[in-house]
Amino acid sequence: APSPTMSDDDEVCTRTATASDGEGTRAGESGAIAALGETKTSRLMELEARLAEKDFIMEPSAIDDVRAYVSAGGAPSTAIELLSENYRGYAAMTTLAVHWLKVTAPPRRGANTSPIKVSAAVETRGIDNGDGDATRTPTGGILTSGAGKGTPRERAATMETEARFDEMYFLEALVREKFDANKADAVFQGRPPAWLDGLFKSERGRAVLFSLAESNPNCLLISCAIQHAWQRGMRHEVRALGPAAAAYFSIFHELLADHVKGIIEAGDDDERRMDFEERLKSMCCQSIGTYVFGQLMLATLGRDTDKATTKSSQAIAARLSEEIEEAAASLHGAATVRRLAPWLAASAADATAKYATADLLSSRPVGTNTSSVGQIRDSGALAAGDLKKLLDLYVSSDVKKKPSVAPLRHPDVLYNLISEAFKWTVDSGANRLRSECFELIALAASDDETSVDEVKAALTEAVAIVENAKRGEMPEQTSVDKVFAIPCATAGIIAAARSALTNEMYHRVVQVGNANSVFVHVLGEVAKKHIGLQGVVLEALNAIIQSCGSSHGDELAISLLDLGCELVAAGHVMPTITAAANSWRRTLDPSQIRYFANEVLEIAGPPYSRDFAVVMIRLLDSANSRKRMSKTVDDFVEDVRVNRRSFHPPLSLAEVGVLDSLSR
Question: Cα 584 from chain centroid?
């Protein structure tokens, strides 16, 4: 009841205010209800849009979204209608299409595949054999009718086809084709998605990412996958990446150690050893940084202090260092590699010597490849000033400033010093730099067992043999034995023979008939007695054949081919016949190549390795060899035809075609 003291006007105001408050409260409640309705409607529309997506019923979250839709007030019948009307069955259609590809794709046909078996396989594939497999739905994972039957090789081929033609195979191919590193790395913007861990745990998922590693070296997603695999013990997968894993220094040094260990454990298994060496070179040459790091680790290996392993460690480290240097020079340039050499020196004096050798060899390539066409090292003149500057470092009176002989023992330095010292000249006294070269060669070649004076004496004796050879005089055996006892002096004779026989002036002023036979004879003796110099003899032979060809008569060409046969007989087989197949056939007459091939097959005998057979087939084909030209060649061709099914990998169709033409 109103207060007795309240006036009529106050009572009217109070009632008006109370009514206004009630109306405001009701308006607020209505606004909240309207906003809630709008939110609910917006949520329903959002869910309906998701349910209306094509094949949404196949999504893992479909049942959760249906529950949310019904809870938000949506009609269950509407949800069912949206899901059913928008079902397209893409997954089932994909499985069906994949199965069609399995049925229609012909078997892989190799050189040993019978055409009759291929036809039979195509006709019978996919036919129901009565066990009910052919009536199963596409989503049931249909197998071909031949699964589990036949020989082990046929079952393996069937399993390979099944593995190849599945949904994941085509999805992997699509990822490789469309992969975008920037879009892939976007998954790390915020919280990584839940599927990422499943991708890293999947062997096929990792395999796809690893296959993209080399072409996308800066992709964060791939980097994480590599680190994930390495940290969880799947190191064999990372090792298989080769150079792609070299970008991660946390992995690089362990991989490098593994590869060096593999090279040591390979022992006499040349194929396995070469595989590890190729991986090592690929890793270390991935970038300038990996090259320097790899060389530093090899230098550490070369400083092994264990008496039992010192010599073997130093030999392996030195050889690998040289091969990596040559591979890096072919990728990054010889000048770049030589500029880095002083950084890897053991002392400041050695660094100064390496700068001097870099200046001396500034225009020369790094290393050589004696089995490739055109890969022949330059043997032009060295700069007299650079040569004397290098010598001054070693004849300095200050012992502390003298560098070690390590820079001189680099193969490129020794090779070029020997080439300069034994360069052919009309006048034997015209080589003004010979004495300086001999001083440096003697320093490099001397050790605890051989003195500097002994090396110089052998070099001088080698010069005498060369001068006698120019006059067509065979060397005395005592002189040959003295020279052959010092490898660098023996290499000097090889360099002299190469320099003479590749110089056009030599063929004009020297009575080349006798001189040629002497030089070739001495090279043959080197091939027989110095296994380590067989590669250098082959390099010289390549240079001479490319320079002379058949232009100086059949007698010289045949004597050079006989030298090649001596290399084969001495065990230098594959490099020699590969050089003949790649290079000699371009400059020599086909009849001369047939002569060489026939002589090689007289030396070699069955069983023939696959590599030998393939190179000889190419060589015989380039020589236009045919059946009945030579019984030795016919026997070789027939033996390869009979035993080719045992070759692994099998001969290609082109090689089989050439083999068939040689047998006709």
Answer: 27
